[in-house]
Amino acid sequence: MSSRGSSSRITDEEINELVSKLQSLLPESRRRNIGRASASKLLKETCSYIKSLHRDVDDLSDRLSALMATMDANSPQADIIRSLLRS
Amino acid sequence: MESKSSTTGNRDNPNRNLHGSKTMMASHFLRALFRIQQTSTSSSSAGRSRRIRRAAYASMAYSAGTRRAWSRALLRKLRSRARLRFPRRLSRAATPQRRDMDQAQVLRKLVPGGPSMDDCKLLEETADYIRFLTTQVRLMQTVMDSVSS
């Protein structure tokens, strides 16, 4: 796995630590789905989660873009954003 | 030689680190949105959407700075003006249940800078990347909610 030799071999303890860290990053609903997580299931679920987050960014970008089409520079929303930026 | 304790060394309270980044992220993203709104009056919605998407990843990367491998990789991609693409479908055919190693390979393709990380670093970076990603998504949702009300 690593080319750095035996000194960087990952121990079981470290795997468990990182696995529980990964587990804590998943939202509750996903954690429930995988139940007693093996490292393999957890990795798979993590990949799935990241992909859905990427999709969220795409989706929200589309929606924000559509929303912008209805706004002009003098609309009250623009004022909100402007004041947020000033503070 | 990289020490194993570097995973938790300077991140006793990851939430504290994230707070300052959240402010930077919001400020960067809102500024970008404002610029996009002003300069894209006649462009297509799809073009504007692409710019917004790019701004999202940019504000994530800038607020994380250069202390993370994933953010450095993202910053490199953004500066080279390469297309920001993340793989959606990673297997050609329906594959049977694979072992850890293969899932780690899949993960490497999803986290910026992944291919050059060993397993240990990959998991650290993944954790950080997910934190910033969820923050960015929540930020975008908040902007959506407040602007459309």
From TrEMBL, chain A:
Q: Which InterPro entries match?
A: bHLH_dom (IPR011598), HLH_DNA-bd_sf (IPR036638), PRE (IPR044293)
Q: What is the lineage of its organism?
A: Eukaryota, Viridiplantae, Streptophyta, Embryophyta, Tracheophyta
Q: Which UniProt keywords apply?
A: Growth regulation, Transcription, Transcription regulation
Which Pfam families does UniProt cross-reference here? bHLH_ILI
User: A GO biological process this protein is involved in?
Assistant: regulation of DNA-templated transcription
Superkingdom of the source? Eukaryota
SUPFAM superfamilies with a match to the protein in the record = HLH, helix-loop-helix DNA-binding domain
Stated name of the protein: (wild Malaysian banana) hypothetical protein
Record carries keyword Transcription regulation: yes
Q: Which PANTHER family match?
A: TRANSCRIPTION FACTOR PRE, TRANSCRIPTION FACTOR PRE5
* Domain (BHLH): residue spans on this chain: 1-53
Citing just one GO molecular function, the answer is:
protein dimerization activity
Family that this chain belongs to = Belongs to the bHLH protein family.
